[in-house]
Amino acid sequence: MLNRLGHRQLDHFRMRFSTRDLAILASLREHRFLTAQQIIRLHFYGHATQPAGARACSRVLERLQRLRTIARIQRRIGGTGGGSTSQVWTLDINGHRLLTQNKTGRSHFDPSLTFLAHTLAVAETRVTLEEIARRNSLRLAHVEIEQTAWRQFIGTGGQSLWLKPDLAAVLSDDEFDDRWFIEVDLGTESLKTLLGKCAVYESYRKTGKEQASHEVFPRVLWLTTTQRRADQLRNALANSRSLHPRLFTVARFDEIGAIITDQPPLNGKEERA
Predict the structure, then answer these.
(1) CA angle at 245 for the pair 243 and 248, rounded to the nearest 5°
(2) Which of 39, 47, 78, 209 could form a disulfide with 52 if both were Cys (CB 3.0 to 4.6 A apart)?
(3) Is residue 229 part of a domain?
(4) Same structural domain for residues 123 and 256?
(5) pTM score, whole prediction
């Protein structure tokens, strides 16, 4: 078992992995769970055809699984006929050991369906951002997922508060840096809860903490599953007297490309978000 090996043996074991292998493991560590299709789109997009990329990905995932660096969990996305590209992968004990160099690794766990659905939706958003960047000569210059994207700040009453975006992202071209906080809404929470989170964004914006580092405050993008849900949230935001009207953008998941690439400058500076 790898978690019984010393650092020298671990370094020897690491030599068996390509740069792409390690990148796949790093993506699984960052997102916790990814479908095979998402792994293909992140790490096998350069193949001549999509089937060729899928076959190459399948071979790599099987090899990584044999080495106990990744594991396939007992969930399928898309129903019983979802196929191998709908299978869900996570780090296994040797993957954790390889990436962290801890003396002991840890086994994977089977998540609840609600947790898994949200985690994969966040991952899908990140994969989509990567694809948008490739198609539009942009760079996904920086991305933070969930806990790494969280911001701690002091509220007006002196209490410690947390802003907890699902993602924070910076897309860049030769002229602009577009900064985003992104919220993934699968319709499982009430509009009141969503507006409460918007109020935390407003409180954090007023501290000036983010602006002190980057001169501007990121635009907050809410991604929803249906037009009805998007309209409900958009109307609730418009009727709020306490939220900055231009801070929030609401869109369906399939509209993210147009939103990300077509937003106009907010303030005439070289940073648009």
Answers:
(1) 85
(2) 47
(3) yes
(4) yes
(5) 0.87
